[in-house]
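Encode chain A's predicted structure.
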Amino acid sequence: MMYLLPRPSPTQPELTHAEPPAPSDHPVLRTTLTPDRALLFHFSALTLNAHAIHLDRDYAVRQEHHRDLLVHGPLTLLLMLSALWANPAVGRVRRLDYRNLAPLYVDEPLELLQYRHGAQGKRRPDEDSPGASPPPGGSWKVQIQSPDGGLAVMGTAETVDSCP
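Encoded structure for chain A:
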C-alpha cells in the first residue's frame, strides 16, 4: 500500500487537508485503540490477505524497511466505520471517503477522532451550545492519528438520520 497526500480525482471528492485539526476544532468523539498481532492475524485471515508485511516482523523490518508490522489499510476503514457506528449522533453512514496518509504499526496506540460538520464542511453552531444534542445525520470528518500525533488516515462521512 502506498501512502499519499490527498489528491483530487474526477470520481472522488477532494479531501480538504492533511494536517491535524486546529486546536480550536474539538472532536465530538475520541477513541484510543492499540492494534495487536492477534488483530492483524485475524484481519488477515478474514480478508485472505497473507502478505508478510502484516504477519512477519522480520520481513516487514528487513525487506520493507518498516519499524514493525503494518496495520492493514482496510482495517483502518473498518475502525473508522466502527467508531462512527458507535456514536449515536451519527445516524446511518451513507458514504465514507478515506485516504491512508502514513503507516500505522502493531502495538502502537492510535487515536480515532470524529468531528461534526454541517453544510459545506463548517461546524454547526448548535455543537457549542451547552447541553445541546444535535440531530443525527450530516457530515463527519473522521481521522486516525499515530502515536506522535501525526495524521495517518483521514476521511469524510456522509450520514443520514434513519434507515429508508
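The beta strands are 29-33, 92-100, 110-117, 138-145, 151-160.
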